[in-house]
Write a structure and sequence with these properties.
The complex is a heterodimer of chains A (362) and B (1098). By secondary structure, chain A is α/β, with parallel strands linked by helices. Chain A is built from 10 helices and 19 strands. In chain A, a hairpin with a 4-residue loop joins strand 18 and strand 19. In chain A, helix 8 packs across helix 9. The termini of chain A are far apart. By secondary structure, chain B is of the alpha/beta class. Chain B has 37 helices and 40 strands. In chain B, the strands form 7 sheets. Chain B has a 7-stranded antiparallel β-sheet with strand order 14-13-10-11-12-15-16, sandwiched between helices. A 7-stranded mixed β-sheet of chain B has the order 17-18-21-20-19-22-23, sandwiched between helices. In chain B, a hairpin with a 6-residue loop joins strand 13 and strand 14. In chain B, helix 4 packs across helix 5 and helix 24 runs antiparallel to helix 25. The longest helix of chain B has 18 residues. Chain B starts with 8 loop residues before the first strand and ends with a helix. In chain B, 63% of the residues are buried. Classes of the chains: A alpha/beta (362), B alpha/beta (1098).
């Protein structure tokens, strides 16, 4: 066996210790800390850890083998990685795919993303499921330091993570017939790819005021996904309300759904351990059809808080939480899950078509 | 939309006997369907000819027809029961093909007839007809391999001109790839195309460009009538394209697909099921992917529950068949709850946090003449599945689950097999897919051949090969070390890579139990994780476990008395579904009696590995190490109270472990008694003391010893190894030369640790062979008070010398005088008492004249237990399991579990089903080595009628017109008079060899044609029998082989019959039974009756 294995530990805020081996990058202080969550998708590890929505979080992959098909730039969901670390049972030392350009380990090192492998990820997942997301730290530092680092973590509630991930300045992509302004709260590349098929997209920073957006005379506004607590995205809700009330067709995904809801009086709350996976059943209430969806969120909209303001359009069949809504009398709708997939099933692509239709109707 | 209330009665078509390509996975799916539909309040009618199945237990349906699965019989059942609907998608290819036949006759699926639910005729035709399927896929924009359809050889060659070699030939409407093959040369093409046309019931083949070496995948899809679609499982084949999926090592979930590729495949699978039009239920879609550029093509789809669905169900915990049955009667996926979480709906896609490996098990050693090379036609007879947290762990567990003497990926005595091979030869061998390939790959990597080099030779994905290399590197790191030198970390690392204690003992040159105790002293013990469909996202309610070496164990404590039932492992010839039936019945009976039952098994096809058959399921290999681990885990879970263990119901697999388990834990007959029956010396003494005659014999380890015994008792002798099932390596030898080669073979197998091998602990038994004796089998139960219940006395149709598993037999006995049957009962009772049996015992007798010889006794469940239960209405396995735990027969009578047998009014005949149609190179003559894969039952008012039904059910086409070919050995000639006479009376033509014809002429029975033997035709004007058969001039063959000397003539005729699909019998007894049955049946129609009616419980 190769001798360059470094045995390290993951320590959670409750004092639980997991033994594993270092993979990817190791920070100089020997500590990678963040809020630990688990993701249950069988494929798509690269899309997951490059998703800006994971800012502040350490991602546990429940699938045994990670890295098997390597990595390729086209699968990255953003310009970098914003997650704090990755945890897996086994990292492939050799990958195999005609698509791959390098190995997962090389990418983790290049993007300075710390990782730990070889630990009992199922025990960790069961713990997170039962006690809710926990803060944790792993690395070469000793266990006392790791525990302290875990406890020092701020978690994702009550802090603004969007400002860490949003684009510093506006840029344009695509050349479709509509003119869409997309708020970047941590937007995924796959979303931009879908929007590009129907629109010329101006991606703007999260902090852009409504007036500035409206001055671009958009045919529609898109509200992106993003990390953390919707309550902390200051100004966004007000801007969104002004835009929607100005009659601009608006479509939101994930954090965008939460922000749209909050803009019209909705409340958001934190789920115990969130939804992170690619197999969640969602009912589309209008048709009764079940969509298998890609999900990645810790916060959720309380549907009762929208009563009278919005119609609930989608519901999660596992825990009956809200998955989508349409504002009454206004041209705006949003979903909590990820219709763009990347990774995940393509069952909900129709929502981009629905956005195009909304923009079509004057 | 909820349950359909317009349906009341539903007919389920089962899959018939276990054959290659269609095994007990369809008992699993059919049993689930019956249970679900009964629970939903429908009246369930079941048709299946296989008595060994759990689904044909009369409790599972309102009307159970154990009748031949033919169009005529099904039409009668439909006429009698008037079902509202027929569910054909859970009975394998048999069910589907019969549904199509019924539809074509206008008997189902058209107004005024039962509705086809699950899949309609149009959907079945679209998926099964190669041309329609291809056009349908092109229509929806999916790629298919370049191909053309042919209905005759002219069309086939035209298509070939267009495509070019190499091509793959795929016949339409076939099972398990029968008749398929890859042609690299014109010569191969002509042969394969012609065989393929013959194999297709509609004489249609697809000639397709060969994509050998591409990666192969399968997706299991479910769809409801609201058009919700989900993928249950993705499966990646370890073996690239070119090996039938059923013969491939497969892994779930798919390991080397990126999300982009996987989602593309998922979209394609949904498009496929929608276009084909499978309205509800499960289907599987097979894909090939070009590893160089990701090109994706659809290979085929099965519009029904398949072997892969059973695997996917066990791999994920998602019960595909159960859900498919519910969808068929109107529910949608979101209306059904996920049994495992109980909180979430079935409309989701399972995600798993472990790796599942399936490895097939083959039986080439039983089929001399076969090449042993794997291809596009399925040849395996069973499979194992294993679960590990990683692929290396899962692979090694699967390899030791196979029970073929291997402890994992080499690192055991079996690896010496490759010592003599050069590197080049080794790689050359590994390039050809065979059952040995996986071990050859391991050896190649151990010899420092690089992953890339091995990949280049085999096209096996480098990810898999590198994972295997991790195992090899671990082994290297242990070499030269001693056990106690190893740290906890090192031992744990090896165990996490799936190394068995036996492998560690081998590499550390120590003893397995020493490894175990050292390992335990370091605290390296297995943890049991749960199969939960959701990677732990939700709490699992169902205790379905597998072992791995991690931090946390998930077995929940319990205080109820518990019983571990050791299952029977992979299906193989000699040990199949019958034993699973017994284990499952034990679990049902003991649960009902208040025990908590714990099943241990590694066969994904079975009902026993359904998560709700037992209170707990451990999907584990059946080795000493793994079983002791489960016992330890269960002991821990109940606060130190050890469970009872049942070893007597799963065949030879658990029985072999009985001596390795604490005897105090064994429920039922003690290991001491089991040994008493197996140990020849002790057994002889016991029979002597009881004054029960035995054929003279003895035991030997060497040829010299064997020869002395043979001379003493006189040739011919029956040579058989101890501790085997299914007559493995059993032979009748007529002289010293034959004896020598038999002994040599067994010594070779013994040194390799193979089944049927010879060693000092497992000597060979040598007995005088009783020629012309009638063989009799008895299944009995004895309780601890000494009461013995004779379950059934079965008289074999074939004479002694044909393995009991390959022989037809009847209940009640047809030719034995009543007093002989009484003697047999008396002998059985006294043997059971002397062995202190607690539970089942099977005793075999040979009756010669009026002398009853005992051949052997096995104090365990036998292959015939389910047949006896169905013939008599007595639930033997349930009763036996209760008796094993201490109940008395008297108590069980009071309780109502033990009912009196139904006697009189009907005869039941069990017939074996042989795999020869898949192996045209094999001689079909029956012998002492069992070769049947399955069995059927014929039941009717008389023996003749029941026998004819059994033959029809087994696929034998008895002659009703044309010419029958007769060739009898001298001993059989007198009975031949009767055979020839009956055939004449039935108005059939008779052809015979010169000897047989001359003999028959003496008794006023002229034959129509005299046919030459191979040895006679040279230079004579005689016709060649084999050629006549090949020309289709013979409708049936009766050929009884000669006891000794050259069998070549007969062999050529039997092979010709087999290759040309002409039915044959190879014993005069079977010929007599057949002609007598035909005579009885001649002027009346076939009648059908349900088991419930026969048992008087309708």
């Amino acid at each position: 066996m190769s001798t360059d294995i470094t045995n390290i530990a993951l320590v959670l805020e409750d004092g639980s210790v997991f033994e594993g081996e270092a993979v990817g990058y190791m920070p100089e202080n020997g500590i990678a800390a963040g809020e630990v969550v688990f993701h249950t998708a069988l494929t798509g590890y690269q899309e997951v850890f490059t998703d800006p929505s994971y800012a502040g979080q350490i991602i546990t992959f429940t699938t045994s083998h990670i890295g098997n098909y390597g990595v390729t730039p086209v699968d990255s969901e953003s310009r970098g990685t914003f997650a704090r670390g990755v945890i897996m049972r086994d990292m492939a030392r050799r990958h195999s795919s005609w698509r791959s350009e390098s190995s997962l380990d090389e990418m983790l090192k290049a993007q300075k993303l710390p990782g730990v492998a070889g630990l009992d990820t199922r025990r960790l997942t069961r713990l997170l499921r039962d006690s809710g997301s926990l803060r944790g730290a792993f690395g070469t530092a000793d266990q006392a330091q790791l525990l302290a680092a875990a406890k020092n973590e701020k978690g994702t509630s009550g802090i603004d993570l969007v400002s860490e991930v949003t684009t510093p300045q506006a840029y344009m992509v695509g050349n479709g017939k509509f003119n869409v302004v997309a708020y970047d709260f941590g937007i995924k590349t796959t979303i931009l790819r879908h929007l590009s098929e129907i629109a010329t997209v101006t991606v703007v920073p999260a902090s852009m005021p409504a007036e500035e957006v409206l001055s671009l005379s958009p045919s529609g506004v898109f509200l992106s996904n993003g990390p953390g607590d919707p309550e902390m995205v200051t100004g966004a809700a007000d801007a969104i309300r002004l835009i929607v009330e100005a009659g601009v067709p608006t479509f939101g995904i994930c954090l965008g759904h939460q922000l749209l809801s909050r803009a019209f009086g909705g409340h958001t709350f934190k789920l115990p351990f969130g939804h992170h996976g690619a197999n969640h059943p969602v009912r589309h209430i209008a048709t009764g059809a079940v969509e298998i969806t890609s999900q990645n969120h810790n916060f959720c909209v309380d549907p009762d808080s929208l009563s009278g303001v919005a119609d609930i359009t989608h519901i999660n069949l596992n825990d009956h939480t809200n998955e989508g809504m349409r504002l009454r009398g206004l041209r705006a709708f949003s979903v909590q899950y990820h219709p763009e997939a990347g990774p995940g099933p393509h069952d909900s692509h129709y929502l981009f078509g629905q956005f195009a239709e909304l923009m079509e109707k004057k | 939309m909820p349950r359909r209330n317009d349906l009341h009665t539903i007919l389920i078509i089962g899959s018939g006997p276990i054959v290659i390509g269609q095994a007990c996975e369809f008992d699993y799916s059919g049993t689930q369907a019956c249970r679900v539909l009964k629970e939903e309040g429908y009246r369930v009618i079941l048709a299946n000819s296989n008595p060994a199945t759990i689904m044909t237990d009369p409790d599972f349906a309102d009307r159970t027809y154990i009748e031949p699965l033919t169009l005529e019989i099904l039409a009668r059942i439909i006429e009698r029961e008037k079902p509202d609907a027929v569910l054909p998608t859970l009975g394998g290819q048999t069910g589907l093909n019969l549904a199509m036949a019924l539809f074509e006759k206008g008997l189902v699926g058209v107004p005024g007839t039962p509705e086809l639910i699950g899949a309609n005729a149009e959907a079945i035709a679209t998926a099964e007809d190669r041309d329609k399927f291809k056009q349908a896929m092109i229509e929806i924009g999916l790629s298919v391999p370049h191909s053309g359809i042919a209905h005759n050889m002219d069309e086939a060659t035209t298509v070939l001109k267009d495509i070019g070699l190499p091509v793959i030939i795929r016949p339409a409407y076939i099972l398990g790839g029968r008749g398929t093959g890859i042609a690299n040369t014109m010569e191969e093409f002509l042969k394969l195309a012609s065989n393929g046309l013959d194999a297709s019931p509609i004489r249609e083949i697809l000639v397709e460009t060969s994509i050998v070496g591409w990666k192969e995948y399968e997706l299991e899809v479910m769809r409801d009538h609201a058009d919700n679609c989900v993928i249950i499982c993705s499966i990646e084949n370890f073996d690239p394209m070119g090996v039938h999926t059923g013969d491939s090592i497969t892994v779930a979930p798919a390991q080397t697909l990126s999300d982009v590729e996987y989602q593309k495949m998922r979209d394609a699978a949904f498009a496929c099921i929608r276009r084909v039009g499978v309205e509800t239920g499960g289907s599987n879609v097979q894909f090939a992917l070009n590893p160089a550029n990701g090109d994706l093509v659809v290979i085929e789809m099965n519009p029904r529950v398949s072997r892969s669905s059973a695997l996917a169900s066990k791999a994920t915990g998602f019960p595909i068949a159960k859900i498919a049955a519910k969808l068929a009667v109107g529910y949608t996926l979101d209306e059904i709850s996920n049994d495992i979480t109980r909180k979430t709906p079935a409309s989701f896609e399972p995600t798993i946090d472990y790796v599942v490996t399936k490895i097939p098990r083959w039986a080439f050693e039983k089929l001399p003449g076969t090449s042993g090379v794997l291809g596009t036609q399925m040849q395996s007879v069973g499979e194992v599945m294993s679960i590990g947290r990683t692929f290396p762990e899962s692979l090694q567990k699967a390899l030791r689950s196979l029970e073929q003497g291997r402890l994992g990926l080499n690192c055991d005595s079996g690896e010496s097999l490759y010592d003599g091979l050069s590197d080049a030869d080794l790689l050359k061998k590994a390039a050809i897919a065979t059952p040995e390939r996986i071990f050859q790959l391991g050896e190649a990597l151990r010899r420092d051949m690089s992953v890339d080099q091995v990949h280049a030779a085999t096209k096996i994905d480098v990810w898999f090969l590198d994972q295997m290399l991790i195992i090899i590197e671990e082994r290297r790191s242990l070499e030269g070390k001693s056990l106690t030198q190893l740290s906890r970390h090192e031992v744990r690392r090896a165990k996490r890579l799936g190394f068995s204690d036996g492998q560690l003992a081998y590499v550390l040159k120590d003893d397995e139990m020493a490894v175990r105790s050292y390992r335990e002293s370091l605290g390296v013990i297995p943890t049991y994780k749960t199969v939960d469909t959701c990677s732990a996202e939700f709490d699992a309610q169902t205790p379905y476990h597998y072992s791995t070496y991690e931090d946390e164990d998930e077995v929940r404590p319990s205080s109820k008395p518990r019983v571990i039932i050791l299952g029977s492992g992979p299906n193989r010839i000699g040990q199949g579904i019958e034993f699973d039936y017994c284990c499952v019945h034990a679990s049902f009976a003991l649960r009902a009696a208040g025990y908590e039952t714990v099943m241990v098994n590694c066969n994904p096809e079975t009902v026993s590995t359904d998560y709700d058959t037992s209170d707990r399921l451990y999907f584990e290999p059946l080795t000493r190490e793994d079983v002791l681990n489960v016992i330890a885990a269960e002991t821990l879970a109940s606060g130190g109270v050890a469970p009872k263990v049942i070893v007597g119901l799963g065949g030879q697999t658990p029985l072999k472990l009985s001596g390795l388990i604490d005897p105090a834990l064994i429920a039922g007959t003690s290991p001491h008694s089991i040994d008493l029956a197996e140990d020849r010396e002790k057994w002889n003494q016991l029979c002597d003391s009881l004054s029960i005659p035995q054929p003279p014999g003895g035991t030997a380890v060497t040829f010299a010893d064997a020869s002395v015994i043979a001379q003493r008792v006189g040739y011919p002798v029956l040579v058989r190894p101890s501790y085997v099932l299914g007559g493995r390596a059993m032979q009748i030898v007529h002289d010293a030369q034959g004896l020598e080669s038999a002994m040599e073979q067994m010594a070779r197998d013994g040194s390799l640790g193979k089944e049927g091998g010879l060693s000092a602990e497992r000597p060979v038994l040598i007995d005088h062979f009783l020629e012309d004796a009638t063989e009799v089998d008895v299944d009995a139960i004895r309780d601890h008070t000494g009461e013995v219940l004779i379950g059934g006395v079965m008289e074999h149709v074939e004479e002694a010398g044909v393995h009991s598993g390959d022989s037809a037999c009847a209940i009640p006995p047809q030719t034995l005088p009543a007093w002989v049957v009484e003697v047999i009962s008396a002998y059985t009772t006294s043997i059971a008492n002397s062995l202190d049996v607690r539970g089942l015992v099977n005793v075999q007798f040979a009756v010669l004249g009026t002398t009853v010889f005992v051949i052997e006794a096995n104090p365990r469940a036998s292959r015939t237990v389910p047949f006896v239960a169905k013939a008599t209405g007595v639930p033997l396995a349930k009763v036996a399991s209760r008796v094993m735990l201490g109940a008395t027969l008297a108590e069980l009578r009071v309780e109502g579990l033990l009912v009196p047998p139904v006697t009189g009014g009907h005869v039941s005949v069990k017939e074996a089903v042989l795999p020869f149609n898949r192996f045209p190179e094999v001689d079909t003559a029956l012998g002492p080595e069992m070769r049947s894969t399955g069995e059927v039952m014929g039941i009717d008012r008389t023996f003749g009628r029941a026998f004819v039904k059994s033959q029809t059910a087994a696929g034998t086409v008895l002659p009703t017109s044309g010419t029958v070919f007769l060739s009898f050995n001298d001993g059989d000639k007198p009975a031949g008079i009767v055979v020839a006479k009956r055939l004449r009376d039935l108005g059939l033509g008779v052809a015979a060899t010169t000897g047989t014809a001359n003999y028959l002429a003496k008794f006023g029975l002229p034959v129509d044609r005299i046919v030459g033997k191979l040895s006679e035709i040279e230079g004579s004007s005689l016709e060649n029998a084999a050629a006549l058969v090949a020309n289709g001039e013979i409708s049936f063959v009766v050929n009884t082989p000669h006891g000794r000397g050259s069998r070549q003539d007969g062999e050529a005729i039997r092979k010709a019959a087999n290759a040309n699909g002409v039915s044959s019998v190879t014993t005069v007894e079977a010929a007599l039974a057949a002609v007598n049955g035909l005579w009885e049946q001649r002027s009346s129609e076939v009648e059908v009756r349900s088991l419930q009616e026969y048992h008087g419980r309708a």
